[in-house]
Amino acid sequence: MSACGHLDTINSAVCMNPFLPLPAIFQNLSSALHVLTAMLTPALLLSACGSFIISTSNRLGRVVDRVRKLSDRMEELMNKEGDPALLAERRAMISKHMELQSKRASLLMRSMVSLYIASGMFVLTSVTIGFVSIFSAQWSVIPVILGVGGAMMLLVAAIRLITEARMALDGLHEETEFLQRITAAHSEGSGKRD
User: Fold this and answer.
1) What is the pLDDT of residue 30?
2) Is residue 150 within 8 Å of residue 192, measured between CB atoms?
């Protein structure tokens, strides 16, 4: 037996602290680097989550701005006189778009929650990889579960963001069709007056 409490047959063992002998996995540099590499892998996914969070925050900000503009337009229409049928159609369209923006905002908030949960799970994955490699391999299933859970939350967020983008596109198509109808009606009205 050596001063570290390890068997002398472990030739590559380096005794850094005789009171706290390191597990066999850390007895050489390549093993330690392997553990560090495993711990850094979730950091790449964490970076992806961060990019999604920034993008989602920007999208949410644009939705809020859009709701404010729609609200201002609605107030203008309430005080405006003109063709009653056209005003009613505009009000209905703005109301519908405000409802759509509310749904988009809710979906974006749920996406952000999923992304934050995924980020937390990836951090925990990294930490538990370190703990498992130091203390006991019998708990090695924990970082795997956390990593898979984080990936699943990332997938859920991506699906929600795709759904939100589709809602935005549908709203844009509806608004474009409405503006084309107004333009056509205005052109016909101008042609009759001339």
Assistant:
1) 63
2) no
Looking at this protein, which amino acid is placed at residue 176? T
- Report the alpha-carbon angle 73-166-182, nearest 5: 40
Name 123's Cβ contacts closer than 8 Å, sequence gap at least 6. Answer: 42, 46
φ, ψ of residue 28 in degrees (nearest 5)? -135, 160
What SS3 string covers 90-111?
HHHHHHHHHHHHHHHHHHHHHH
Query: What does pTM read for this prediction?
Result: 0.68
- CA distances to 65, 142, 173 from 176, in Å: 19, 51, 5
Say if residues 93 and 175 touch (Cβ distance below 8 Å). yes
Contact by Cβ (8 Å): 70, 97: yes
Secondary structure class of 80 (helix, strand, coil):
coil
Per-residue pLDDT tens for 4-57? 444 444 444 444 555 656 555 555 656 666 777 777 777 777 788 888 888 888
Longest Cα–Cα distance in the chain = 108
Helix ranges restricted to H, the chain:
29-78, 84-134, 141-193
For residue 151, how far is the Cα from the chain centroid?
A: 11
Residue found by looking up tokens 């701005």 in the block: 65
Give the DSSP letter of residue 190: H
Non-local CB neighbours of 93 within 8 Å, separated by 6+ positions: 174, 175, 178
Which token pair is 66?
């859009």
